[in-house]
Automatic annotation (TrEMBL):
Taxon lineage: Bacteria, Bacillati, Actinomycetota, Actinomycetes, Mycobacteriales
SUPFAM superfamilies given in the database record: Carbohydrate phosphatase
Binding-site residues, Mg(2+): E61, D79, L81, D82, D191
Protein name listed in UniProt: 3'(2'),5-bisphosphonucleoside 3'(2')-phosphohydrolase
Any one of the GO BP annotations: sulfate assimilation
An example Gene Ontology molecular-function term: metal ion binding
Keywords: Magnesium, Metal-binding
Length: 243
């Protein structure tokens, strides 16, 4: 099984597990549902990666950061449940599972599962989004849209699309449901590694908001800002964010 196939398989299987957790905890408190989802998906991914790629290191949101990854040639970067709040709300579909592989300085494989939508986007082949609409759509958090995204919306004469998890937002650009995702104010490598791998496979622009590259498997796993957008909009977006 290739690394691409493994990323897709594990993201999809973790997603199915999370749907089962959601059903099992449907009548439980939201926090119990969140905790069970985080733990079970993390435990599944760690066990599966240990079995399938025992020599590789892993960086997971829900795990203890093992510094051995800093000297490893191959590191899986996973978010077992991206969008925990949305997962806990039983009518929402904008949450995800992220599985990415970093190797020798680059993201080389990745998958984003959207379990409640029965969708898994995975490298190496991801379809480019359909043609852009006349009015660009800027996807933002439904609870805390960053000021820079609002500035991009004004500069492009766009409209806002509210959505939950980072993975769901990037997937929406890949799927052609939105056109620009700009984030600033706090994320970690696991929030964006798999989505960025998928976005790059679809031919989208990905960078920090100052235009510099997104770099993974760093000692400090914080990676606080990013842009994912249609390539034809990148120059206009960066004129706002990097200006």
């Amino acid at each position: 099984m290739t690394d691409h196939e493994l990323a897709a398989l594990l993201a999809a299987e973790a997603g199915r597990l999370l749907l089962d957790v959601r059903a099992e905890f449907a009548d439980a408190a939201a926090q119990d549902r969140k905790d069970a989802g985080d733990k079970r998906s993390h435990d599944f991914l760690m066990a599966a990666l240990a079995a399938e790629r025992p020599d590789d290191a892993v960086l997971s949101e829900e795990g203890v950061d093992d510094p051995v990854r800093l000297s490893a040639q191959r590191v899986w970067i996973v978010d077992p449940l991206d969008g925990t709040r949305e997962f806990s709300e039983l009518d929402r579909t904008d949450w995800a599972v992220h599985v990415a592989l970093w190797e020798a300085g680059e993201l080389v494989a990745g998958a984003v599962a959207l379990p409640a939508q029965d969708v898994t986007l995975a490298t190496p082949s991801v379809a480019a989004p359909p043609p852009a609409p006349a009015v660009p759509r800027i996807v933002v958090s439904r609870t805390r849209p960053p000021a820079v995204a609002l500035e991009v919306k004004e500069a492009l004469g766009g409209e806002l699309v509210e959505m939950g998890s980072a993975g769901a937002k990037v997937a929406s650009v890949v799927q052609g449901l939105s056109d620009v995702y700009v984030h600033a104010g706090g994320q970690y490598e696991w929030d964006s590694a798999a989505p960025v791998a998928v976005a790059r496979a679809a031919g989208l622009h990905t960078s920090r908001i100052d235009g510099s590259p997104l770099i993974y498997n760093q000692r400090d796993s914080k990676l606080p800002d990013l842009i994912v957008c249609r390539p034809e909009l990148a120059e206009a977006v960066l004129a706002v964010t990097a200006g």
